[in-house]
TrEMBL record:
SUPFAM superfamilies: DNA-glycosylase. The keyword Cell membrane does not apply. Signal peptide: none annotated. This is 3-methyladenine DNA glycosylase.
């Protein structure tokens, strides 16, 4: 529940959950590639890591598991949120401390279906990533910033990534050092740092900071579904937009992302009245 948001769909080469609940992550840390294996056994967390970045990952394991998170600051203001909060006492907001790791897949998710974005992430890591250290087979560490910046245009095309998103990723990769500094910044400054890169807006910044910084207040605006889900869950109204969602979340100022996580965990879903978006194949364009 805490770490699942770090995976990017089924088949993510950098994230795997085994049938016994053991979780594997492959990351590119400031000290190099690393693989982390985490398991909960007998009320304790056990972890092992491999590669040049292994020690870095182990040192930051408590933050990854939400040790820096303070759920006691959250006060439910709606019956549904209160019930979700009661039913999920173990929820913490993970903090990876790695900006590009969350930023690039968030850019891939701009304005497309989840399936399209997950497929692109999977293909790009398989093509340009490197084998993850350690015993977990077929896992990949994402490319370093230079490798992202050098991906040829036809490879983006093969992965189904349009020119706008690929150009944004290249710009982000070229500013990687400055963007990674956002992991240690307060939310407002961190969001401003990310949005200084053309092509990165509030939606992408929030989706990144929720994971890299464990931000409890980085609410996602500009999303197609979230405002309507929040509006329907809290009021029964199906047509909420960003402004209405933010107004409803006002009582949770400072904890708006946590409120949204709990609303999604409640299981409430907007009744479907429209067909799903079709998956576009940019390779045919």
């Amino acid at each position: 529940m805490t770490l699942g948001v770090l995976g990017r769909g089924p088949g993510d080469p950098a994230f795997r959950v085994c049938p016994d609940g053991t979780l594997w992550r492959a990351s590119r840390t400031p000290e190099g590639p690393g693989t982390l294996c985490v398991a909960a056994r007998g009320g304790a967390v056990e972890a092992e890591a491999w590669g040049p970045g292994g020690d870095w990952l182990l040192d930051r394991l408590p933050a990854l598991l939400g040790a820096d998170d303070d759920p006691s600051a959250f006060v439910p203001r709606h019956r549904l949120v209160h019930e979700a909060h009661r039913r999920h006492p173990g929820l913490r907001l993970a903090r990876t401390g790695l900006v590009l790791e969350s930023l690039i897949p968030s850019i891939l998710e701009q304005k497309v279906t989840s399936d399209e974005a997950y497929r692109a992430w999977r293909l790009l890591l398989q093509r340009f990533g490197e084998p993850a250290p350690g015993p977990s087979p077929r896992m990949r560490v994402m490319p370093d910033p230079r490798a992202w910046a050098l991906v040829p245009s036809w490879e983006w095309h093969k992965a189904g990534v349009d020119d706008k998103r690929s150009a944004t990723i290249v710009r982000a990769a070229r500013a990687a050092a400055r963007l990674e500094e956002a992991a240690a910044m307060p939310d407002v400054q961190a969001a401003a740092r990310l949005q200084a890169v053309p092509g990165i807006g509030p939606w992408t910044a929030a989706e990144t900071l929720q994971r890299s910084n464990g931000s409890p207040d980085a609410v996602t605006t500009g999303d197609l579904h979230l405002p309507r889900i929040v509006g329907y869950a809290l009021t029964g109204f199906r047509g909420a937009d960003d402004a209405a969602m933010l107004q409803l979340l006002e009582p949770y100022a400072g904890q708006r992302h946590r409120a949204c996580r709990l609303i999604l965990l409640s299981g409430v879903r907007l009744p479907r009245r429209e067909p799903r978006f079709s998956v576009r194949d940019f390779r045919a364009i």
